[in-house]
């Protein structure tokens, strides 16, 4: 009996690779360091008010007109979707001491992104149902991958309580940010120097970013003809969007213009105070008391980012599939959104990379 394929990472790429392998009757095991599945897909609820819905602190939308894989997959899973709400005027905030400018927005509705009802976590939840839960090991960290002279592949993992195990593998799919591979997994023999340079230079998507979502009882800004969309050079949020569910609660989410080092120094309490003040300035007194401001700083997440990710992106051209040569060729395969050149950073890229990885596994078994 052939050894299973070990998949490192239970984000969208890793889970999709597992589901595709299972469809082909190929045994696999998913190893995840976090205590949850989903990776950078993360939807959160207001404490003790889950009925208001889930709000995305990671990816929020996709574009069916350009991204066929994610569009078809969402339909296959039977998930409900809705078009991102952008109707109404745009606010432009240029100066801290001056009110924002209100602008008419010329927009083609067919270019809008599409969101999933219940948040992107609904995609992960539905995908997980296609995989036996027994093949996913949470709070388990891959420490070392070894290839002996006879070609036997073993993966050393560490459980949360510190226990270490050796797992035999036919192949390993590395479905996590390449920089995490370079920084946290030991290889014996060493990976080729060119490969290490390549994966070290691939910035982790969202690795320097933080996201805040302010949740309200209703999307009150729409009542005055505002879309919720804001472009700001005064901060702290530099882009703001309507993050409300299809009905019920209102929500505004934003990306920060403050760099990760300054965010870390400020701390979450100060940051949420600044966010609230900015929203009051933009949308008036009704923005003063959000039910909660949900906050996620991805640069602080050790299962996502490394120190090098703290700086803003400078090397987009490095995205794409790492080329594995030498003794590791056909033994390890990279997946994840950073390894897809065309759709890097998108859910589409994550899915396409999983399909590419499984195609390689299938080709090796012919």
TrEMBL record:
Q: Which SUPFAM superfamilies match?
A: FAD-linked reductases, C-terminal domain, FAD/NAD(P)-binding domain
All copies of the Amine oxidase domain together span 110-361
What's the superkingdom here? Bacteria
Q: Which GO terms describe its molecular function?
A: oxidoreductase activity
Q: Which family does it belong to?
A: Belongs to the flavin monoamine oxidase family.
* PANTHER family in the record: AMINE OXIDASE (PTHR43563:SF14)
Protein's UniProt name: Amine oxidase
Q: State the taxonomy lineage.
A: Bacteria, Bacillati, Bacillota, Bacilli, Bacillales
């Amino acid at each position: 009996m052939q050894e299973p394929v070990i998949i490192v990472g239970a984000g969208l790429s890793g889970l999709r690779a597992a589901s595709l392998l299972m469809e082909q009757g190929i045994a696999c095991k998913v190893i995840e360091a976090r205590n949850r599945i989903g990776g950078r897909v993360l939807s959160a609820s207001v404490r003790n008010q889950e009925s208001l819905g889930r709000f995305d602190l990671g990816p929020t939308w996709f574009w069916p007109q350009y991204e066929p894989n994610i569009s078809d997959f969402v339909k296959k899973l039977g998930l409900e979707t809705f078009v991102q709400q952008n109707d109404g005027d745009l606010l432009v905030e240029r100066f801290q001491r001056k009110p924002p400018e209100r602008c008419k927005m010329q927009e083609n509705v067919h270019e809008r992104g599409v969101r999933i009802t219940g948040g992107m976590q609904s995609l992960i939840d539905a995908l997980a149902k296609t995989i036996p839960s027994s093949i996913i090991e949470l709070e388990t960290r891959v420490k070392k991958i070894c290839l002996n002279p006879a070609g036997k592949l073993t993966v050393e993992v560490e459980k949360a309580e510190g226990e270490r195990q050796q797992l035999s593998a036919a192949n390993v799919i590395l479905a996590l940010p390449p920089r995490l591979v370079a920084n946290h997994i030991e290889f014996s023999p060493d990976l080729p120097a060119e490969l290490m340079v390549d994966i070290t230079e691939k910035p982790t998507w969202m690795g320097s970013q933080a996201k805040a979502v302010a949740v309200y009882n209703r999307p009150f800004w729409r009542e005055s003809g505002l879309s919720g969309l804001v472009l700001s050079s005064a901060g702290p949020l530099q882009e703001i969007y309507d993050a409300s569910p299809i009905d019920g609660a209102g929500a505004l989410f934003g990306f920060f213009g403050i760099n990760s080092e300054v965010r870390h120094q400020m701390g979450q309490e100060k940051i949420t105070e600044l966010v609230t003040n900015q929203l009051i300035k933009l949308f008036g007194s009704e923005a003063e008391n959000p039910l909660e401001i949900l906050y996620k700083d991805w640069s602080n997440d050790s299962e996502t980012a490394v120190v090098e990710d703290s700086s803003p992106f400078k090397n987009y051209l490095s995205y794409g599939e790492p080329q594995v040569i030498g003794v590791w060729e056909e033994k390890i395969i990279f997946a994840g959104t950073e390894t897809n050149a065309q759709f890097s950073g998108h859910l589409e890229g994550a899915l396409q990379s999983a399909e590419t990885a499984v195609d390689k596994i299938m080709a090796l078994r012919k």
